[in-house]
Structure formats: C-alpha cells, structure tokens
Specification:
By secondary structure, this protein is an alpha/beta fold. It has 16 helices and eight strands. Helix 8 crosses helix 10 and helix 10 crosses helix 11. Bound molecules: adenosine-5'-triphosphate and magnesium ion.
Length: about 400
C-alpha cells in the first residue's frame, strides 16, 4: 500500500494558527515600537491631506537591517493614501526596491506602470518616462509618494535619476507640488557619492530608526507569535530567549525566521509546544533572511566569487581568510566552471559590496614591514550550511558545479 504523505501530514495537529503571518513579506497592521516614527511621518505629511499638493516632502530613513524600515513605510504609505481618500484627496504611493530595480529605466517604468497598468514595458528612454510621469500626475491631478527602498543600490550608477526625481517639482510644475520622495537606506555613508545639492535636499529631513532594545524585541516577537502560533505553543521565557539571540544583530527578520523554524522543528518531532532545544536546533540551521534575499538577486559572477570565499574558509579552517587565498580558490572554481575570472579590481569591488551588504567582515591589519593585509570572515552561519545554500541559489541561476 502506498503511503499518502499529504493525508499523514494533514492529520498531524499543526502548531501554527496562521503560518503565512511569519512570512518575510507579511506586513502586520500593527507595529509595536514604531509608533513614534509613524507619528512623526504623519506630522510631516499632514499638510498634504489638509491642503492637497501644497508641499513636496523629501525624506530619508536611515537604520540598520531588519528593524522595520520597509514595513513601517509601507504601513505609512497605506495610511496616507487612506487618509487622503477620506477627504477626497488623491494621493498615490509607489514602493520601489532599488535592489530589484537597479536602473533608472526600471525604477521609472515601475512608477509609470503603477499609474497606468497597461503601459507598455519597452520602447521609452528614461527621459521620456520622466516626462510621461509628469503628464500622468497632472492629468490625474494626484500627489505621488515615491518610496525608493534600499536606495544605496542606485547610488554610484544612477545619481541622475535621484537628482531628476527630487527636481521634478521645481522644473515641471508651476506652484503645485505633485511629488514626494522617501528614500530608505541602512547607512548614510553609502549615499556619499550623491551630488551635494541632491544630498542636501535629502539630508534636510532624516529620520533615524533606532535598533530595538531587548524588551522591545521581546514584545514585537510576542506579538508576531500571537498572530501566527496557536495559544500556549511558546512560553514568554523562550520568546525572551529568541529576543536575546536576535539582539546581537537587531534583525527582527532573523527572529521571525527562528520562530518559524523552531515551530516546524517542534511539529516534526510531534511536540505539543516549542522547547529550548527546538530553538537551538533552529538557530543552527538558519541562514539569515537578509542574506537569502541579497543572494537571490545577486549576479552569477558575484555568487561564484562568494562561493570562492566560503571554499577558502573551508579549506584553511581558519576564522578568517586572505585575498590571496580567496583568489586562488576563485581561480580553481572558474577553471572548473570553464569561465573567465574577473579582474583583480573587479574582485576588490565585489569584496567591498559584500562588506557593505554584511555578507562578510573585512578588517585591514598591518603586517609588520610587509604592509597591510585584509582579513576576511563571514557571519556566524555554519560554512556547510552556507555552501549548501549557495549551491542551491547557483542552481536556480543555471550554474551547476
Ligand atoms: N515593530 C515591528 N512590529 C512587528 N514586526 C516588525 C516590526 N519591526 C520589524 N518587523 C518585522 O521584521 C521584519 C523586517 O522588517 P523590515 O523588512 O521592515 O526591515 P528593514 O529595516 O527594511 O530591513 P532592510 O534594511 O534589511 O531592508 C519584517 O518581517 C517586519 O514585518
Ligand atoms: Mg527593507
């Protein structure tokens, strides 16, 4: 007799009330401990509700990874649109992730298509698209809030776009202000190469999102556990334990993933609730969400180089490795894949990117008279797990080792 795996699984009582509310992209309607930021944003945009198109706001949100920047701004965008609607105002909100939409063309076409879903995807230059956006906004008489999330990915390549967007109001409209912009970034330093006038426009209103403290992390995770898990599945003590683990990085995403994974592990072991051991096992097994997300959109060349770093750390078994060791393992890898290695300067750029994205740590140490040397290490993810995951991602991109 064949075993009906689905039936078997379905018979098992689930510990989840609603598993999808632990998804990375799920945006809860309530955000504990971001009330202050939401209140401040509302104050800044209030004028647009009472007096449509009277002002244009340009705001920069700065804060570390996984501390609710994106989710807070999304909630705020919806609140703003709703508040305007109630008073017959017309505000539209477009959220663009610049890591996914890496060029000005892609950013602009996304904005245009948010205004007109049927707009063809090809055939226009960025300049055309800018003009089309201005026309559409005028025709529809609306105020457009453009959110440029993960803004640092546009900088250095497309400063012009940011310049043009921040200048649209000045150039194209007489007295009315039809566009507001919120940029989101992890670090102000990565915006350094913006031209000074754009920078000074953006810098006028910076809202810093602070890291959550342990108590706040506990309350956020408790709230997320309440909406996603059945009652009495996890004790406060264990949520505190997760908060403790998460506190180091501050990344709530990691906490949510831990919560999800520990519940899965407890379910698999037919437990009625999560134990400290479920959390320990989950913690060993997780590649942080932020890392997963970055890798999904990374070019094949860069992923190959990242794998070379992992291979090098694996081979020498040290805490860190050097550029020379990494380059050796990279060349071996390229040979086995039959691809042309990238130049040294390109590889150095990759290293800088990885550092910026928190995928590696890189410390420059002085080595007696010989000069300086970079020591490269990875976050606290087991190497075998990291490698396994990288290989999976590479396979999705059509690279087989
Ligand atoms: N105050 C909060 N209450 C409930 N959930 C939260 C809160 N803050 C963050 N989260 C959750 O944590 C996760 C990470 O938040 P978010 O994606 O907004 O981080 P971020 O600051 O944009 O990070 P990154 O810089 O990596 O993009 C999301 O799943 C979000 O729902
Ligand atoms: Mg974000």
């Amino acid at each position: 007799m064949t075993i009906d795996y689905f039936e078997d699984l379905l018979k098992k009582p689930s510990l989840f009330k609603n598993e999808s509310t632990l998804d990375n992209n799920y945006a809860p309607k309530r955000l504990p401990h971001r009330g202050k930021e939401l209140a401040l944003l509302s104050q800044l945009f209030l004028e647009l509700i009472t007096n449509p198109n009277s002002i244009s706001r340009k705001i920069l949100i700065i804060g570390k990874t996984g501390i609710g920047k994106t989710v807070t701004i999304k909630l705020f965008g919806d609140m703003l649109v709703n508040a305007a609607q109630k008073r017959s105002g017309n505000i539209k909100y477009v959220h663009i992730n610049c890591r996914k939409e890496k060029t000005s063309y892609k950013v602009l076409i996304n904005i245009v298509r948010a205004l007109n879903n049927n707009f063809p995807k090809r055939g226009y230059s960025p300049q055309d698209l800018l003009e089309i956006i201005v026309d559409m906004i005028k025709d529809q008489n609306l105020h457009l809030l453009i959110v440029l999330d993960e803004l640092s990915y546009l900088i250095g390549k497309d400063d012009d776009l940011i310049y043009s967007l921040t200048r649209i109001n000045d150039d194209s409209f007489s007295t009315l202000q039809h566009i507001s912009i919120i940029g989101i970034a992890r670090d102000i330093a990565c915006l350094g190469s913006l031209d000074t006038s754009t920078m000074s426009t953006l810098q006028r209103n910076i809202i810093y999102f602070n890291n959550y403290n342990k108590e706040q992390l506990f309350e956020i995770l408790k709230f997320r556990a309440e909406i996603s898990l059945k009652d009495n599945i996890i004790s406060d003590k264990l949520i505190q334990n997760i908060a403790e683990i998460v506190y180091q990085s501050g990344d709530v995403r990691y906490g949510l993933n831990l919560l999800w994974k520990s519940t899965k592990i407890a379910e698999n072991q037919n437990l009625k609730y999560i134990t400290i051991e479920s959390i320990r096992l989950a913690n060993q097994d997780i590649v942080p969400f932020s890392t997963l997300d970055i890798l999904k959109y990374m070019s094949a060349q860069k992923i190959i180089f990242l794998l070379a770093i992992i291979n090098s750390l694996d081979k020498y078994r040290g805490i860190h490795t050097s550029v020379r060791e990494i380059t050796e393992s990279y060349i071996v890898l390229c040979e086995s894949l039959g691809i042309q290695p990238r130049s040294h300067s390109q590889l150095w750029n990759y290293l800088q990117d990885f550092k910026r994205e928190d995928l590696i740590t890189m410390e420059i140490v002085s080595e007696s008279i010989k000069g300086r040397k970079a020591q490269i290490a990875i976050q606290n993810i087991p190497i075998s797990k990291y490698k396994e995951f990288l290989l999976e991602v590479m396979e999705t991109k059509g690279i087989k080792i």
